[in-house]
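Journal club prep — side note

Before the paper discussion, L.F. wants everyone to see what a predicted structure for a comparable chain looks like in token form. Sequence:
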Amino acid sequence: MAKSGRGPVPGPASGGPKGTKGKSGKGGRASVAAARRSSGDRTQLIIGGVAIVVIIAVIAIGLVLHSRNTAQQGAGYGTSTKSVATMDANGVITVTPVGNGSPGVVLDVYEDALCPLCADFEHQFGQQIAKAVDDGQLGLHYRMVDFLDGSSHSGTYSTRAYGALMAVAKGDGSKPGVFMAFHTAIYDAKNQPKENGSTDLSNAELAKLAGQVGASAATQKQISDGADVEAAKKDAQTNLTSLTDVAAKVGRQAGTPTVAKDGVPLNTNDVNWLTNLLPKSGSSSPAPTSSGS
């Protein structure tokens, strides 16, 4: 900000010629004006510099907070190795710990195979979820939807990927860790197609991916043939209806990923959402839950 007020202006030199008098007056006024401009410029530079420092600090704090809120939970654990999967008549795929069909905490997980936010969710919390299942603390009901079919290159990817998950759950769900490994592979950045991308995975490629994590030849053929695609299409609509009802309980629109407990969505933006649900060390009962918005 420029300084306010006027400074003293030097008077004319006594006894000098008229030309000198005029020149001296103009020069004095010019000097004062230049001084004011210089002072104002310095003040503006200081204010501008402070503003830049503040902006940089705000950005840095935001990046730190974002990093904390998106850091991998349970990093280094890997995929589940002590879980089994079954599927009911409505296409709900249930994952439980080996030898424990009734864990203390059971969650409904709504996802779309093409959903990038679902991939982010799995990247951030997948290993923590896997450990909780393997530790016998957590069970999962996967309720897949396919509303992103239209954003896939083939127009059917979400449904076909759901059909592939069905095939693995039915054919190899009793093999510890196989279903969860395939589910993880579906969302791996190397495998998940892009929304509105130029390609996606064919049934044969989905079958190959399932084989890489331990699915049998019979299951791979089931996937290649698209044997469960029609069932997946029907059950995805049932799951979408369920998701819509769950979201409405907290005034939200249906979206993925959504994780619910007892029919109420959880706030998975809280990095401690799962930790707060699981039994504390030395306790046999789950910690109190909180719903998200």
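L.F.'s comment for the group: The CA atoms of residues 105 and 138 lie 5 Å apart. Keep this in mind when we get to the figures.
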